[in-house]
Amino acid sequence: MSNAVTETIYNQPDVHELWAGIGGHFDSLGQIINEFVDNSISNFDANNPLQKNIAISLRELESGKVEVTIEDTGTGIKDLNIAFTLGGRGSAESPFNEHGFGMKHALASANPSDDNWEIYTKNDDDAKNNRYRVIGAPYKIGEYEIKIVDANENEWPGVYSHKTGTLVRFVCSREMYRTIYKRATDFVKIADALMEDLGFTYANILSSGRASILLRALPYGNEEKDGNVGALEPSWENYISPSCGTEKIDLGGGMVELEYKFGRFYELDERQLFNNKTANRHYKHSMTSSGVEVRLNGRIICSNLFREVWDIEKHNSFNNFLVQINIKSDRTEALPETRTSKNGLREGDEKLEELYHWIRSKMSKPPKDMSFADHETDMFTRLKEMFEKTRGAAATQQNKSYVCNTEMHVFNTGNSKDKVRIDLYESMGDQNFVYEGKIDSTTSKDVYQLRMYWDGLVYDGITPTQGFLVAKEHPDSVKNLIGIVNTMEDANGNGYNLKEVTWEDLGITTDR
After folding, report:
1. Is the pLDDT of residue 385 over 70?
2. Fewer CB in 10 Å around end: N or C, the chain?
3. Are residue 459 and residue 314 in the same domain, yes or no?
């Protein structure tokens, strides 16, 4: 190796290519705004200023683009050198500054052309010297000049007159603005959606007084709308064991405090936002609002988890089921790792797997609410589980055999095409029952379907005892037809014994 020839390579990144490369970490403008709100809250938590206010302004420009500002009454940025260094965490004030990339990533995502963004900041030293500092586009690596502005000659551009604070301003495209709520085109309607999302993301922080958020929407040529963001929290119908509480646990990086709630929630009604009626997009009785919700120090990181925790898919029967987990620690290394954009947790992290294990230790699987079932198969699955616990246990005490099956087939001729599956078959001792059902209402066709199940048992050498037609309700025509069929005899010469019942008769609620 002594004779090896060396050469020098140059790996100084092209700043424009770098800016383009770091700008793809966020899915929406809402996530970008959250990054700057996170920085403000981090500053509040670390320095505890007397005022903990954040103002977000959305201004529609004549060009159709949107000017966005996020301002706080914090203590300002102490070291702009570190703050504008990629990966620089030397000025991190709390776990909210986990990565050291967030602010730069957010700016690059919001303003990919790197031509229209600025950050204004004033700390205690600036306040003493009656000045503020400004850094803006384009982004640079190496020597980066900032402006030091005399506050006597140039008034602070924000809405707060607080002696210290930080203001972020950028201009984004209309298309980027619409990523907040792609289903809407109206400027204020989109701002409504942002207000709702902020209330959801920072619910614990807002309700505990760690910060307040004012949102202003300024549509071009129209009246300004503004309002305080309220904490968006679920209205609990009931708690499910282990209910709610706190527990200290080591997830693998040191002790943390887990705040938890397990239960079912009421669907939130429409609320008034900016004088527009807007239906909630959160805490709806839907497959997108249920499941496990994880917060770190009060800030939502991910929600709607099922497969990740229990290895099961989302289903309508879980539509009002919710688990809220808030993990609290002032040590970043003790918390599960988040994605760079804080819109999820990093799979494969040992601390995350330990969290999932803890949830499963408290609840081995989530309970279903069959009032949200969208198919009678789901209803009969629930009915089967109930029968096995009650009638199955009673049969065991009486030393009787018991079978309850949703996979029972009749007309077993050996030809699989001729087989018919019964919705539910139940056998206890020498008694045999068959069930056919619909979620809402039955028709005459369902009566004949139930009779076919009966005839299939007879064909297979099984003597039926009774057949049940199950639904939320039965019209008179169905009841009359059942009466007619019950006057007839089956192939064994025995009379049919069919009966209409409701789901509630059997102990299954269908009210939503």
Report:
1. yes
2. N
3. no
